[in-house]
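Researcher: Predict the fold of non-reducing end alpha-L-arabinofuranosidase.
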Amino acid sequence: MLNIPAHSAQAIAKSLLALGLLSSATAQAQTAAPTTVTVQVNKPGKPVPKNMYGLFFEDINFAADGGLYPELVKNKSFETTEHLVGWKALKGGAGLETYAVLNQQPISATNSHFVRLTTRTASPDAGLTNEGFRGMGLKQGAEYTFSLYARRGPGSVNALTVTLEDEKGNPLAQAQISGLTTEWKKYAVPLRPSATSSRGHLKITLDGAGTADLDVVSLFPKDTWQNRPNGLRTDLVQLLKDMKPGFLRFPGGCIVEGRTLAERYQWKETIGDVASRVPLINRWNMEFKHRSTPDYYQSFGLGFFEYFQLAEDIGAEPLPILNVGMACQFNSAELAPMSSTAGGPNATANADDPTLETFIQDALDLIEFANGPATSTWGAKRVAMGHPAPFNLKLIGIGNEQWGPQYLERYEPFAKAVKAKYPAIQIVSSAGPSPDGELFDKASKRLAELKAEYVDEHYYAKPDWFRQHVDRYDKYARTGPKIFAGEYAAQSVAIGSPDNKNTWDCAISEAAFMTGLERNADVVGMASYAPMFAHVDAWQWTPNMIWFDNLRSYGTPNYYVQKLFSLNKGTTMLPVENKNGQDNLFTSAVADDQAGEIVVKLVNYSSSPRPVKISLTGAKKVGKAGKAIVLSSSDLQAVNTLDQPTNVSPKEEKFSAGATTTYTLAPNSFTVLRIPGKR
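Model: Structure tokens for non-reducing end alpha-L-arabinofuranosidase follow.
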């Protein structure tokens, strides 16, 4: 007889009970009459927008610096307001006589600060360390390019020693930079760590006694997307490309607006020489007291050129969002005057401040930068950055999440000016931050009167809101503006709560809602989850679609929901005869004319298996070999993590198909059925 410990016996008993319950539930599902889902293949609707499911990017949660943009040195040019953010003197400065940020005879007018180090005697402690972005992710054997600008002053400092160390101070790689002169000069050396560290750091020390000036200190991985010198982090781009997104919205988000107009995102400041791009405080740095990040700046190493390039790389339409002359209304609500003679209670008073014309001209110049020939002013700048061909920009957004009469009065002349010069450009307008209410209704009504092409609607809410509003767009006029569901995500606790999680409950509820988007693809032209990225050690907002640390990354259950809709969006809407959401069964269907398949999406928000009978009315050449892609978990609170990145992830299986197919949906599941057949 086996000697089983008491706690093991209890565990076995629980397992047997669970198996018994599962067997009972399965038996009930097999004996219960299946729910009929009739897909009217012979009554196809309008085409599914080819760019329907896309991506929303905003530099929140260290999404750019410390994330997608893989520069490892924080504050590399000493240009932030607090000039030594990210830097510390070794042993509190014991080896240095002075270390200070100065601006005499800088590299350039736009890169006007540098750090000066002085030591009276040669010392291994005469130097600085850089902490990176919550550490530096260093991979054993990978190549990193260290570079900086340097010049020597009085004394005998003719060289620098550069060391990569792990979190305990153990050296991982070292190199010397020699031949310093009295003039600014760029130096570069390769470094290959001898071990892996997710929280490494950089150390720079003076060789000799005297003075040296340092600037534009960079540590950049050689392994970047498409091996570009100023490229992006490969694993994060791959996660995006795998989704086959229809569009890429950038740079935000409230980043576009800034807390004040002075802190707004200005695209012209983000192009050209990377070393000359002037950093700006990130508007999310102190937005949430519970997650304050005072060291959060935007270096703009990832700027508008790189955004356009990324969109091209992943096959997405670029969708830049531009400031409409309004700072964030949750912050200062500062307004630019309508013209140089305009005013108002919140208008900027200083005559040197920009007027609405400035913002309109920025938009026109951006379109020229993206699409203009090499002979045009801004097109020439794109060509000079290495992209002779146009980016083929077709969409822009005017304002991010503005509301009220101040937005509408600025939107109208803005849109008119863009259409006058570029009539083919389609414009995305804003309905504000809420999906309902008086301001939302007034904005929607006025934008319809102005014949807006896209109206951007946002909704962050509890999971049950998404299941309860699956019919939201059933009620919309078929002839009005197209809807851009530009920001949405289920909040497991509350909007903006630090305790929100990317649970399966949130993701499956979003899947249910998205069947409503797909059923109304003649109204909803684009949709994107938000936010997209978050650093596990440096986030301000949760939930987020993709999480990462300095070395690893993973997609959440929400990511896989978005990916399954995008990869299976089909080409043509197909009506489905059943009340969407009845008994917590949510459905939609499309024809994929290119693949010759009927695609049926089903969400079973139930703890029991659910048999369904799929009837393909009027389908032709229906095959027998169907494919099911199932995303499910018995635990609605299940999440993915860095250590369990695919805990909730899709599984594929084959099933017997036909014009009438019976299939049993797993409990708490989102299932995509692909059945060979034509309309």
